[in-house]
Amino acid sequence: MFSTRVRAALAVSFLLSFSAAAVAMCYVEDGDFSSTQGIPSHGAKELEEHYVSIFGTFLKSAHRTDVVRSIRFLTPSIASVDIDWQMTGAKTPDGADAPLRKGLLNWVVTKQNDQWLITVYHESLFTPPPAK
Question: What is the pLDDT of residues 70-123, one digit of tens each?
């Protein structure tokens, strides 16, 4: 089942290994990523460099929990996937502990050689409402 594969890929790639190479292999060769700050990465080399950077710095001790919200098949080999996420253990740019972070991942995935791979990955960060 597709959703089981998505959950397995998330668990292996993001939650357990924090391996930049493993995460980059979850993408198609010319995949696209856009961070919560809108910083893009395109293609296998840039994607792996991006993950090496973040896994070695502010996400080094982070733990992320992902829950697949929805999967919509656009064709039998293309799907849109929405994933709620939350993270603890991240650091701010000055090295302080970051507060709990929550957001939404929007993926377009394609089936290639009987494997679902990420083609487009957009990451959103929910901002807390202003204090009243």
Answer: 889 999 999 999 999 999 998 887 889 999 999 999 999 999 998 889 999 999
pTM higher than the cut 0.85: no
Tell me the DSSP string of 65-81.
EEEEEEEEEEETTEEEE
At 11, give phi and psi (nearest 5°).
-60, -50
* Cα 14 to Cα 23: distance, rounded to the nearest angstrom: 7
Q: Which domains does the chain have, with CATH numbers?
A: 2-125 (3.10.450.50)
**Helical H runs in 31-128?**
43-55
Predicted confidence at residue 120, as pLDDT, reads: 95
Give Cα separations from 117 to 5, 7, 15, 31, 89 (angstroms).
Answer: 10, 13, 17, 9, 27
